[in-house]
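ok trying this again, last paste got cut off
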Amino acid sequence: MELTKVERLILHNQYEIMKLLDKSAGNKEFCENAQTILEYGYSRNYDEFSEFFADEELSQEKMDLVFDALDLYRCLRNSYEKLSPADKVQLDSKKLEFRGFDGNYESEYLCYANFVINDLGRYAESKREDYNTHAPMVPRYVEMLARWIRITEGGNKFRELDLNEIKSIIA
């Protein structure tokens, strides 16, 4: 990472403000170290105060997949609620709940889904404690989304689905 002298000055001042707002020993030491790194231009150490930043922006495709998966599960749950009791017993309602993503191999998706649901407060019906599935989900979601689009013929994805359509998507 490269920073201009002006960027270093701005960040140095931000750390001074952080020191004043949080006077705990650990924060003070962290801020002072960051200020020294910035003040002297120790670029090798910039990662010490920016380690929590992702190296790259999250791609639009990954963010879209998270929203598409959440939309799919919203549609499945809403459609399930409209089914007759006789039809409902033919489905395992647990399969109609958004599970999340694998924390080891799909962590970007996992973190973004957590942010969308918990921090932005969207898709409240999908809120849960843990979104780590401990198993890859992206291929499954891609497959389910393709079925959903095929079933709705690329039209209104949010229309009510019947029992057989739900079964086909979650199969």
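PB: full thing came through this time. DSSP finds eight helices and no strands in the chain.
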